[in-house]
Amino acid sequence: MNTIFAQRRARLLAMKALRDSYIPAEQAARCPACGAETPRRAVTQNLSVCPQCGYHDPIGAYHRLSLVLDPGTFKELNAKYPAADPLEFPGYREKLSQARRKTGLNEAVVTAVGAVGGIRCVVGVLDGRFLMGSMSTAVGEKLTRAIEYAAKNKLPLIIFSASGGARMQEGILSLMQMAKTSAALARFSKTGKLYLSVLTHPTTGGVTASFASLGDVILAEPGALIGFAGPRVIQQTIGETLPEGFQRAEFQMEHGFVDAVVPRAQLRDAIARLLRLHEKGGRL
What mean pLDDT value characterizes the chain? Predict the structure, then answer.
């Protein structure tokens, strides 16, 4: 009798454990890197980083700003500056409308003035959800205005990049933003203020070849893809197998392109330390 009772109790405990471990599909988040399923709340609490493998899921611009800026200091710059269709590219207006509805943004970048660790600064964040964070004439103009605002007010500058490159629907006008933003940064550099570039997944194309690579200090999130052409294109072009981890943030740090790879949970503190260090001329 005791044996039967013990067996029944063991089955009930096993069923309870199975029930407790089950995550309803609508509440589960599957990691694109390791495939592990984790409760969405746990992933959100972990700053959209997979608790199992550390994969850093891309996040939106406003979410990024909320993680970086001191509470109550956010003031958006040029919030209503619109995307345009200068070449009247077929289907482009529809794509822009879809991107606006999907993200609630007017364009692929949000710029703001705020404070990190009590130090006022200008921050720009590219949002990969809006046409892959591609650089259009409007994105280039918003970034240039943010850079010029930082220069005029003698504030440090931080830009978070996440982009597929220049926006093909705007042709040469998009490519011109590489020179435009780079020239603005050259003028900003003369103020002696810090420009901190943070590379997130993915940072590619014309963005990598311009403002993203011009930081006084360049940080990156773990596992971020960083490069001009993608690894598949390079491998097909040269006909050779690429090294493991090629173009990932860790690979780029080993080869001197990135100064440090910083996990998302530590990024705000790292930025605050760099701002303090620069403001005090090297004395903490």
Answer: 91
Mean pLDDT value across residues 5-21: 55
For 136, the token pair is 């259009």
SS3 (DSSP) at 205: helix
- At position 280, the amino acid (one-letter code) is K
Greatest Cα pair distance, the chain, in angstroms, is: 87
How many angstroms separate the CA atoms of 254 and 265, rounded? 22
DSSP letter string over 36-103? -EEEHHHHHHTTTB-TTT--B----HHHHHHHHSPTT--EEESTTPPP--TT--TTHHHHHHHHHHHH
Please identify which residue in the block is written with the tokens 């130090």: 119
Name the β-bridge partners of 111: 77, 124
Q: What is the 3-state secondary structure (H, E, C) of 154-179?
A: CCCEEEEEEECCECHHHHHHHHHHHH
Cis peptide before 202 (omega within 30 of 0): yes
Nearest to 139 by CA among 126, 158, 155: 126
Pairing of strands 75-77, 37-39: unpaired
Strands (E), 92-227: 109-116, 119-126, 157-163, 195-203, 217-220
Spatial distance between the Cα atoms of 256 and 261, rounded to a whole number of angstroms: 12
Here the tokens at position 205 are 């194309």
Residue 49 CA to residue 12 CA, distance in Å, equals 34
Q: What is the pLDDT of residues 180-194, one digit of tens each?
A: 999 999 999 999 999
At 200-209, the pLDDT tens digits run: 999 999 999 9
Under the banding of pLDDT at 50, 70 and 90, the label for residue 18 is very low
Confidence (pLDDT) at 281: 59
Q: Record the tokens describing residue 43, joined without a space.
A: 């992933």
